[in-house]
């Protein structure tokens, strides 16, 4: 008789592994960004959100630090509701942000979120 796999244990193990990957990615991204929001340069410590540049639904990897950016809650909300757009990396591999009006967002002033 072939034993059945313990699916509850397997699911718990996969959840644990995903959580470990997420936590490691978060740590790498926050350290790389110097614990500052990439859009507005606000120092946020560990209260920053880590946002996927290319969403998983469009083929992005959720746990790849290259595909992630640290954003403060305000900028993260602005990106989520499309008031702020993350543009492709330019030749210097720096991310740029534009407002809904198409203006380059420099981090100075406010994001309407």
Please give a handful of descriptors for the protein shown.
113 residues; alpha+beta; two-stranded antiparallel ribbon; two-stranded antiparallel sheet; 4 strands; elongated
Straight-line N-to-C gap: 60 Å
The total tally of domains equals: 1
Indicate the proportion of strand residues.
5-15%
> What is the overall pLDDT average?
84
By secondary-structure content and strand pairing, the structural class works out as alpha+beta
Overall geometry: elongated
Rg: 17 Å
Helix content: 25-40%
Furnish the topology, listing elements before pairings.
Layout: H1 7-32, E1 49-52, E2 68-71, H2 73-80, E3 84-86, E4 97-99
Would you mind describing this structure in some detail?
There is one protein chain. This protein has 113 residues and is of the alpha+beta class. The protein has one domain (7-99). 30% of the residues lie in helices and 12% in strands. The chain contains two helices and four strands, in the order H-E-E-H-E-E. The chain has a two-stranded antiparallel ribbon. A two-stranded antiparallel sheet has the order 3-4. It is elongated, with a radius of gyration of 17 Å. The mean pLDDT is 84.
